[in-house]
Design goal:
By secondary structure, this protein is an alpha/beta fold. It has one domain: Rossmann fold (3-Layer(aba) Sandwich). It is 30% helix and 19% strand. It has an 8-stranded mixed sheet with strand order 3-2-1-4-5-6-7-8, with helices on both faces. A hairpin with a 5-residue loop joins strand 5 and strand 6. It is globular, with a radius of gyration of 18 Å.
Length: 264
């Protein structure tokens, strides 16, 4: 990559809204996900990029702090396409100007939250490809969206070959049914939540399992959701098992289950 290329970050300036602890649910998932842990632990140089951190770098510092549970020697770099948002390095975190080209870095993990949501749907594939091209061997990307308070989140996990999984995560006490997360689906799926599309079918099936598990609601929404997950598995839906109890309600499925249907 030439120096001229590095001077022209790939992408456009987004709104930059952010908030303290807004990405806590995805951070908690990253720390415990086996693929993410393996990628970080197998890397000789665990560089992590927080792409498009917004007007304030709160969530970049939070990501760096939480990832110390996996690799204490991780190197976190926050990238922003708007040069006025680039702040001085501090607390062991670096900042630079950059976009989907990742500023020439070779990270093992890229987190791009609430970035592509502000782009047209047709921009997703090229943006993914640009980031994938910049990954270190074995690297991963998290492309996600959440609400302003971080209570409702959804993200796609990708490697260099393509999307691997979709995860929905939400505050158990803030959501009436799983399909309430539909408004926070990543850009690759948000326009596909219509009858006939796989993601619409998944949300409808999750809602039905949630309703069926209603008798367990007296034990709290977390217990009710764990029961709903077992019902989904009993129907043959390949829901990812959680190795420990989570404070969030989470649904992770293979990308193949929700991939958009081809259009003519």
């Amino acid at each position: 990559m030439t120096s001229a290329t590095l001077r022209r970050p790939h992408g456009v300036t987004t709104r930059g809204t952010t908030g303290i602890n807004r990405l806590r649910r995805s951070d908690r998932w990253l720390v415990h996900d086996p693929l993410v842990r393996r990628a970080l632990n197998d890397s000789a140089d665990p560089v992590v990029v927080d792409l498009g951190y917004g007007a304030r770098p709160h969530t970049t510092f939070e990501l760096a702090d939480r990832l110390t549970a996996v690799r204490r020697d991780r190197r976190v770099v926050g990238l922003e396409i708007d040069p006025e948002r680039v702040v001085e390095s501090r607390l062991g975190v670096s900042f630079a100007r950059g976009g989907f080209e990742l500023s020439g870095l070779r990270p093992v993990l890229v987190r791009a939250f609430n970035v592509l949501r502000q782009y047209p749907e047709e921009a997703v594939g090229p943006a993914w490809a640009r980031m994938q091209a910049g990954l270190a061997p074995g690297g991963l990307i998290v492309d996600g969206t959440c609400d302003e308070l971080g209570r409702r989140c959804a993200w796609v996990l990708l490697d260099t070959q393509g999307p691997l999984s979709l995860t929905l995560a939400w505050d158990p006490f803030d959501v009436e049914r799983p399909s309430d997360i539909a408004a926070r689906l990543p850009k690759a799926l948000i326009h596909r939540n219509v009858p006939g599309e796989p993601v619409h079918a998944l949300l409808a099936t999750a809602d039905l399992a949630w309703a069926t598990a209603a008798p367990h609601g007296s034990f709290g929404p977390r217990v009710r959701w764990r029961t709903a997950l077992e019902l989904l598995r009993a129907q043959g839906i390949p829901v990812q098992h959680q190795r420990h109890r989570r404070r969030d309600n989470i649904l992770t499925v293979p990308w193949s289950l929700v991939a958009p249907r081809a259009t003519n």
